[in-house]
Amino acid sequence: MTDRQVRLHDLSQIDAAARDRLMVRSEEDLQGFVDAVRPIVADVAAEGDAALIRYARKFDGAPADFRQIATPVEDFAWAEKVVSREVAAALEFAADNIRRYHQAQMPEEMWLKEMRPGVFAGERWTSIDSVACYVPRGKGSFPSVALMTAIPAVVAGASRVVMLTPPGSDGRADAATLLAAKLAGVTEVYRVGGAQAVAAAAYGTASVPRCLKIVGPGSPYLIAAKKLLADRIDPGMLAGPSEALILADETADGRLAALDLLVEVEHGPDSSGFLVTPSRAVAEAALAAIPTYFGKMSETRIDYTLTVLSSERGGIVLTPNLQAAYDFVNDYAPEHLMIHAREPYQHLGHIRNAGEILLGEMTSNTLANFVIGPNNVLPTSGWAKTMSPLSVFDYMKRATVAHVTPSGYAGLAGPAECLARYEGFDAHANAVSETRAAILAARKE
Predict the structure, then answer these.
(1) Whole-structure pTM value
(2) Can you point out the beta strands (E) in 270-414?
């Protein structure tokens, strides 16, 4: 394990093809994963709970007597007893900030603007009827994800919010995740993970209700299942394995930049993470610092970290100048971006593509992941070029609203009829023609 070295990728010394390889994420080619989850999805569709129970034992290590998918009420009481007061207080603190942030995000329920005299147009927001919040557990427990997915759903007013999370070897959901669900206002927690969880929400089973949408991050297998079932359930954002870039200028402390670089790459061997800097001094300081942090990390997390940082999916990227650093960041479109600089706002205007942007050396990704308030479910694999973080808007939809008065109609009918006839739509044209005018006039007589 220790013979693996953190890679230094010098952009001035590599060609375009090598630079392109640095952009590749672990879940970029999902075909193999789709093929793997297809029979799982088929089994859940055909067998329902029986398949969920079988796969919980096979994939999640649930005990042989595991038979109940729904979390019983007494498990919530158990969770409150076994979760330490310190962790419970931290979850309560985080939940409060997350709730405040997403409440501030809520749109005006309806707006109308007078486009022309007598012509009003606008939008009306309503919540969706049902959503499944997925909380992964494969490489750890993530009660923070439970808060981040469920709180905005409840704030948005989704009619039914359920949580899906894998059982442990004892057959129970993670205790802190159950406490987080309760803090979020969710009482339905189903013990099911991976591709089978997506299938359960898409088809519905005797235990798991069919939902209109599923949100939450997960492995490439989960993402593959979302893609496979996109015609049956809204898959939401396809948030995959963790990734982060640290953008550091010459004023940055390489030791701190290195400390933050390790935050996301310790998630797993399928993560990605780079420190991007035009400063060789910063790069060398970071390279020297990284091994010194391993003394306070477990062997598992060290292994994950070195797997990533010694590959083409991680390490230090040395750029010829700041513009090249900006270009790398925007081309990569990271899930998380931290800007280490004495004046971080000077760089902000150069960034177009990132799921979240954390400014300054005090704004560690750890704070953003847990307690600042903005959502930690973010677009991965370059989707930050077109997608946004999870928010209340993911649990809502807009309907356009229009109202035309008699006086407003007079100015619209002619142009509308003209365009309808040009496009060959007779009924369209008739609806705003003299036929309508005659009916309205007759009604007045």
Answers:
(1) 0.93
(2) 272-277, 314-318, 336-340, 356-359, 396-404
